[in-house]
Amino acid sequence: MIQRLEAQGQKNSDKRYQWDDGSDHDGVAKITVRGDLRGIQYIWFDYYKSGKLVEGSYLGLPEPGFTQTFEINHMNDEQLESVEIYYEPKVGVIQGIQFKTNSRISELIGFEKDCTKFSLSVVGKKIIGFHGSTSGSLESLGAYFTWITPTRLVAKGGQGGKEWTDGADHEGVTKIYVRGGRDGIQFIQFNYIKNGREIYGSAHGVSGPGGYTVPVWVIQGLEFKTNLTTSGLIGFNTGIKFRIAGNGKKIIGFHGYAEKKLISLGAYFAASPITKLEYRGGTNKGRIWDDGAFDGIRKFEVDYPNEFITSVEGTLYEEDTIASLTFKTSKGRTSSTFGNATTNKFVLERKGCGLVGLHGRSTGALQAIGAYFRPLPPPPDGEKVEAKGGNGGASWDDGDFEGVRKIYIGLSQNSFELNYPVEYVTSVEGSYDNKSGAITMLRFKTNTQTSPDFGLGTATDLSFELLKVDHKIVGFHGSSSAMLLHKIGVHVIPI
């Protein structure tokens, strides 16, 4: 259903200067803004429909000034979600304008001084058309909205069963119920948020044991990750591992197949919201600036997309000037302090989120600074490096995690503790006795140190090394018997 928001800005404008691009489009492709010191002269839009570019209304006469464009990559599922308008009521002209998509925010085009701020937005919807009025300058602007189609990832797991779907018309997931049995996950149920209220989804599978033949392929275990925490494994760590994730997006619904067990699971994704933290420092001095929000920030030297800035620590000089800035990253690194720190401190951060843009005020110096944050993307899947050592024992696998904190070795409970998250394991060296098949010595290397040798190897033992260049170890697997470790392998992810 298409929703029309009335034009914001000058009311009762002359009908001769009103224009309307309509709503018969799939989305907005490009925006061109022309302005000068008096405000926005005119604005025009390019749309797309059925994969083709469609030009909108071209209104206004080009005069000396500036021209800025903002392109929207609909091929990468980017959609225009909202527009912020800065209107000067005394002169009746829009002075500044800023655009927000589901993945980034444009810089402020124009000015905001002495303006009234309006917003064109509808939660969960995208803009597909504009209307407004333009005489000598842009006087008002309104928009047409329709629902954003979520991304649907196909169900993963086994085959067979009856298809089910909870739909995608939710704002998010609030609670997950899982019941497991010896043969796998028996049923799963989700609670969602819709229109600000919690709703209860249906149970998929059965809630108790039954006399039936277990399907060949049944989901054995599940683990859920949010931008803040991990559930831990529910069920068993057996079978073929799969992952359902949308980079930079959140899950708003689930679907899959089930019979008397949960056979497969898929999900619907929508873009994660960008959070704008208001600037700290002098809020009344200097000209406002706004870089908008992007996918991430590369410098100070950040290993994007594997590393994100997670906080900005600053200090103030006399309440209205930024004295210093320090940046921290998702890998536990801290930048040097830029400037001369004072005792008047502030912090810009949002738990589980990465910095994607900055805004603030400045004159000859930086008066204030604020930030845009987006939930961090899920970590990459771990890669399994084959276990090495002797023969014997039963297989085990801890799986992959975000990192290693402490390693315990031997019956005497020797241990090797890491300074997590700054320190991480990069390789394991060891030796084993080919006759008994037992590992006789282990040595761990990190990015900052090498552990002592654990165990007593001999000259006749066979040696091995576990590592992958530019990767860190985030889990272990191998084989062991009642008293002996026979093989050890690792899970790694890119550094």
TrEMBL record:
Biased composition regions of type Basic and acidic residues, renumbered to the chain: 12-21
InterPro entries per record: Jacalin-like_lectin_dom (IPR001229), Jacalin-like_lectin_dom_plant (IPR033734), Jacalin-like_lectin_dom_sf (IPR036404)
A UniProt-annotated Pfam family: Jacalin
Molecular functions (GO terms): carbohydrate binding
Protein origin, superkingdom: Eukaryota
Keywords, alphabetical: Lectin
Domain Jacalin-type lectin as annotated: residue spans: 2-147, 150-375, 382-494
Keyword Lipid biosynthesis assigned: no
Annotated stretches, region: Disordered: 1-21
SUPFAM superfamilies registered for this protein in UniProt: Mannose-binding lectins
The keyword rRNA processing is annotated on this UniProt entry: no
Similarity annotation: Belongs to the jacalin lectin family.
Protein name: Jacalin-type lectin domain-containing protein
Organism: Thlaspi arvense (Field penny-cress)
